């Protein structure tokens, strides 16, 4: 039973079917990070996928950029309640990166430069749902927004789109990553409002 | 809602009685939900300035000129009004009285709120861990919790230093300017003391400060915890 807030009228009323429950639109691009923005030198940058057998598939910056690049038009939804509609990114599909990867594990732990981790089912990274993004609105991705490269999984709350992504590790169980250990939901579907747990 | 108090020309603190509030750790936040008569709702997160086990909690809210919820909380809310809150939330940007590392706090504007909870927790717990607060404000009248901070700074375990960005007090030795590497270095602990840091403020402020702190090589990057608000 909601308490009516005397004298509160709110700003806008138009129903926006593109906006998940409890979200508001923003035109700017807020930053949610747990610590300082890490400095990642492109000469040293790598992205890798490690499987349960210990096999490591790795790409340096040139190798990543030599892979087929896709343009992504998508809405993004932050757990702190802002949403940004119609953003444009480019990057490499996880389908491309997983093409030669042999794994039977169903879950992924994502590791970032700076120590940040986040978890998700492998299925959420497959079939055109996730990318390693290196540009935003036609420009190289700003460091505070995760540059040089971030994971982009826009159908989940945006903390799952790990900034400064460094690698994925295939794991057997859906163990919580960094934000998930600190109160955020294990899965994070914005349409089900899975913010906290 | 019990009482509000003017903190700065654009901000006020809000005392709430929350039956069943389980208590909170210093640095946690909560969600405030407003509901209009037609059922429209808006939810925003606010840091909690108070700490401990009681059912009375304190928020401090700065009015964002284009905001939807903060102008209501700062200008409209009256004693006796009811608010829906959910929390406490967050277990990362928190300080426990049992923590032993020296603490560097750096606040920009209303970013003082969760750090104030840490200072209060430090005081009420009797912790003797050294606390340094470096507090960047536009002018002296923009200081939140000014009287309380003045009193708490009498403690040998808390040092409070201000950075004025637009207008300094008449006798202030430094011209108003944005926070500098020198200001942060002057307030910092030594690396050997293994300090930890909490930085809270607008995004641009936190980016600048955190980059400076990493550059000083006093703090290991994972010991600098940040909380940002607003876009860029």
From TrEMBL, chain A:
<dbReference type="InterPro" id="IPR000572">
    <property type="entry name" value="OxRdtase_Mopterin-bd_dom"/>
</dbReference>
<dbReference type="Pfam" id="PF00174">
    <property type="entry name" value="Oxidored_molyb"/>
</dbReference>
<dbReference type="InterPro" id="IPR036374">
    <property type="entry name" value="OxRdtase_Mopterin-bd_sf"/>
</dbReference>
<feature type="domain" description="Oxidoreductase molybdopterin-binding">
    <location>
        <begin position="35"/>
        <end position="179"/>
    </location>
</feature>
<protein>
    <submittedName>
        <fullName>DMSO/TMAO reductase YedYZ molybdopterin-dependent catalytic subunit</fullName>
    </submittedName>
</protein>
From TrEMBL, chain B:
<dbReference type="InterPro" id="IPR039261">
    <property type="entry name" value="FNR_nucleotide-bd"/>
</dbReference>
<keyword id="KW-0479">Metal-binding</keyword>
<feature type="domain" description="FAD-binding FR-type">
    <location>
        <begin position="1"/>
        <end position="95"/>
    </location>
</feature>
<dbReference type="Pfam" id="PF00970">
    <property type="entry name" value="FAD_binding_6"/>
</dbReference>
<dbReference type="InterPro" id="IPR001709">
    <property type="entry name" value="Flavoprot_Pyr_Nucl_cyt_Rdtase"/>
</dbReference>
<keyword id="KW-0001">2Fe-2S</keyword>
<dbReference type="InterPro" id="IPR017927">
    <property type="entry name" value="FAD-bd_FR_type"/>
</dbReference>
<dbReference type="GO" id="GO:0016491">
    <property type="term" value="F:oxidoreductase activity"/>
</dbReference>
<keyword id="KW-0408">Iron</keyword>
<dbReference type="Pfam" id="PF00175">
    <property type="entry name" value="NAD_binding_1"/>
</dbReference>
<dbReference type="InterPro" id="IPR050415">
    <property type="entry name" value="MRET"/>
</dbReference>
<dbReference type="InterPro" id="IPR017938">
    <property type="entry name" value="Riboflavin_synthase-like_b-brl"/>
</dbReference>
<protein>
    <submittedName>
        <fullName>Ferredoxin-NADP reductase</fullName>
    </submittedName>
</protein>
<keyword id="KW-0411">Iron-sulfur</keyword>
<dbReference type="InterPro" id="IPR008333">
    <property type="entry name" value="Cbr1-like_FAD-bd_dom"/>
</dbReference>
<dbReference type="GO" id="GO:0051537">
    <property type="term" value="F:2 iron, 2 sulfur cluster binding"/>
</dbReference>
<dbReference type="InterPro" id="IPR001433">
    <property type="entry name" value="OxRdtase_FAD/NAD-bd"/>
</dbReference>
